[in-house]
Structures are given as structure tokens and as C-alpha cells.
């Protein structure tokens, strides 16, 4: 078949986000590997709607390929993308993604039910916790958290696990978070990668690299379109996705380190957690929050896989 394909690719976060460059890189690799048979035109962030609208367009097929944060609104099991205290290290997170990773088939199955094929998992960043000057003591373990008013994203899994750590949990939309930190509605914010702490640096005193949750995004193609393709075209898309996403998985760590340095340079103190401190948080969340996450969101089958692959904690 000498059919040629002209498709759109987009991401809906921000044009200065590395996701924009990854979309363009993926388009270039696909064009090269397919010998020009598949050409992808990149549409800048927002041109085809925000990330939620793009996921919907991707499902409907008006946007062929998207690279976006995952949505939990279609299936509660997709809360897995924010599973707390699943991994402790970059290497563990990297091993879980890619065509060989254990997470990829799980997300592919969940997404296929809403009309999307997962070509690759994009490692975005570790979450940390960012604090205003109203929290004088450096808070790194559950023993330190009592009484701190903590912003959580209005996503169920965060609303479940953040309070188990001891925080007073307040769900606030991202767009209102900076003002909430400035005005004292909250003392701190969770679900905060280093880059977001840097964006909100004027309201912050310090940031802790808690590694309590890892943020994934997804490179997806419309499922009906995928199913219609010849095997060699599928192979081109899969190998291009693997190449670009494995490169991103290494770059994400470098980006995080750069933003940590930018925070320090901007006068925001940065603290790491030790293995023991990470385990202190993990033990509490796994004991108190994981059973609720299983019952409310993931179900027992998915939770079995999580437990089988989660970082082992010494007794």
C-alpha cells in the first residue's frame, strides 16, 4: 500500500514546556522512519483547545495524536497515574514505562476503553511539597505535618492520601493555587514538581523533594485509526514513541535538577528526603490510603499489580 497519512499532533499544556519539543521530535522521527509516508503537523499548545479538550478530540479522531497529562474523569482506575509512594527512584520509574515496562500495557488497556491507544508514557516529573514562610520548621516526614494546611489538586486520589500523612487537606484548582499560597488560605502545596515550585517561587520559602508521587503523561493515538493501520505503520509509530519517550525519561531528571538549582538561585531553599524519610511517608500512606484507593478507585486486580511492582520497604 502506498497510502500516505497527514495527521495532526498537539499538546495542551504550554508552548515552553518540554512536551512541545517532544511532539516535534516525534513528528520528525516518524517522518524519517516511515520514509515520508506519515507526516505529522504540530499544532501549538492551546490552538486545538486545552489538554482536556485535546483528549476529547483525540478520542473522537479530530486530533490524531496527542501528548497530554492523563485524565481521571473517564475511568476511576486511571487514578493509577498518581499512585502515591509507588516508586522511590528514577530508575524504578523509568523501568516501568516503555514498550517493555509493566505500566504501559495497563494504561493501554484502560485507555483503549475510551478510544485511545497508548503509544508511549512520558515521564514528566516527581512531585514535591512546597511551603510558605508560615511553616517555619522544615517538614519532611509525617511527624512534622500535623496542622499544616496543604493544597491538593481536586483529584480524588490526592484527596485520599494527603490527609493520611497528617495534613489539613484543601482541594484547590491549579489556577487559584498561587493566590491561595500568598493569602494564607493554605500554608503549602502538594503535587508540586520543581518546575511548578519555580513558577510560584515568589510565594514560597522552601521546597521538599518528597517523591511521594510521579507524574506521567501519555502519547496517544486515536484507537480506531490505530486499528486501521498496517503492521509496518504501527511498528514505525511504536519504535518512534519508544525512542522519544526513553530520551524524555532521561531528560526529565536533568530538567528537575536544573529547576532545583533555579529555586536555590531564586532564594527558595531545597531539601531532599533520605531513604528513611521516604519510607516513613510510604509506610503511612500504604497502610492508611492504599486500602481506600483500592476500594474506591483501582479495584483489587489492579492493586495486586501495584503491590507486586511497588518499591520494597524493609520491615
Compact summary:
By secondary structure, this protein is α/β, with parallel strands linked by helices. Helices cover 45% and strands 20% of the residues.
Protein architecture, described:
- There is one protein chain.
- Helices cover 45% and strands 20% of the residues.
- With 315 residues, it is of the alpha/beta class.
- The model has no long low-confidence stretch (mean pLDDT 95).
What percent of the residues sit in helical stretches (DSSP H or I)? 40-55%
Runs in which pLDDT lies below 50 for 5 or more consecutive residues are none
Please trace the helix and strand order, writing H or E for each element.
EHEHEHHEEEHEHEHEEHHEHHH
**Overall 3D geometry?**
globular
In DSSP terms (H or I, runs of 4 or more residues), the helix count works out at: 12
**Overall pLDDT score:** 95
Strand content: 15-25%
Total beta-strand segments: 11
Largest sheet: 6 strands, mixed
What does the radius of gyration come to?
20 Å
In whole angstroms, the N-to-C terminal distance is 59 Å
Q: Report strand order across the widest sheet.
A: 7-6-8-5-9-11
SSE-based structural type: alpha/beta
Secondary structure elements and their pairing?
Layout: E1 5-10, H1 18-33, E2 38-43, H2 51-60, E3 65-69, H3 90-96, H4 103-112, E4 116-126, E5 128-131, E6 149-152, H5 156-164, E7 168-171, H6 174-183, E8 188-192, H7 194-199, E9 206-209, E10 214-222, H8 223-228, H9 231-265, E11 269-272, H10 275-288, H11 290-298, H12 300-309
Amino acid at each position: 500500500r502506498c497510502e500516505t497519512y497527514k495527521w495532526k499532533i498537539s499538546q495542551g499544556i504550554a508552548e515552553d514546556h518540554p512536551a512541545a519539543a517532544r511532539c516535534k521530535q516525534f513528528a520528525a522521527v516518524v517522518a524519517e522512519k516511515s520514509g515520508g509516508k506519515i507526516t505529522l503537523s504540530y499544532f501549538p499548545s492551546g490552538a486545538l483547545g486545552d489538554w482536556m479538550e485535546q483528549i476529547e478530540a483525540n478520542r473522537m479522531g479530530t486530533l490524531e495524536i496527542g501528548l497530554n497529562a492523563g485524565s481521571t474523569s473517564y475511568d476511576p482506575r486511571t487514578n493509577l497515574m498518581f499512585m502515591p509512594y509507588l516508586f522511590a527512584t528514577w530508575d524504578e520509574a523509568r523501568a516501568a514505562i516503555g514498550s517493555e515496562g509493566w505500566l504501559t500495557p495497563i494504561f493501554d488497556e484502560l485507555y483503549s476503553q475510551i478510544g485511545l491507544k497508548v503509544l508511549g508514557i512520558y515521564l514528566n516529573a516527581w512531585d514535591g511539597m512546597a511551603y510558605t514562610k508560615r511553616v517555619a520548621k522544615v517538614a519532611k516526614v509525617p511527624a512534622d505535618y500535623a496542622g499544616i494546611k496543604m493544597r491538593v489538586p481536586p483529584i480524588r486520589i490526592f484527596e485520599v492520601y494527603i490527609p493520611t500523612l497528617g495534613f489539613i487537606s484543601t482541594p484547590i484548582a491549579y489556577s487559584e493555587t498561587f493566590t491561595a499560597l500568598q493569602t494564607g488560605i493554605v500554608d503549602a502545596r502538594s503535587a508540586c514538581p520543581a518546575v511548578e515550585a519555580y513558577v510560584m517561587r515568589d510565594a514560597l520559602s522552601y521546597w521538599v523533594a518528597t517523591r511521594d508521587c510521579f507524574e506521567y503523561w501519555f502519547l496517544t493515538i486515536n484507537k480506531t485509526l490505530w486499528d486501521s493501520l498496517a503492521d509496518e505503520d504501527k511498528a514505525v509509530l511504536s519504535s518512534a514513541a519508544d525512542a522519544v519517550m526513553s530520551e524524555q525519561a532521561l531528560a526529565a531528571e536533568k530538567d528537575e535538577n536544573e529547576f532545583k538549582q533555579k529555586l536555590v538561585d531564586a532564594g527558595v531553599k531545597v531539601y531532599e528526603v533520605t531513604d528513611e524519610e521516604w519510607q516513613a511517608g510510604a509506610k503511612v500512606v500504604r497502610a492508611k490510603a492504599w486500602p481506600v484507593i483500592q476500594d474506591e478507585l483501582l479495584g483489587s486486580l489492579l492493586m495486586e499489580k501495584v503491590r507486586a511492582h511497588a518499591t520494597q520497604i524493609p520491615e
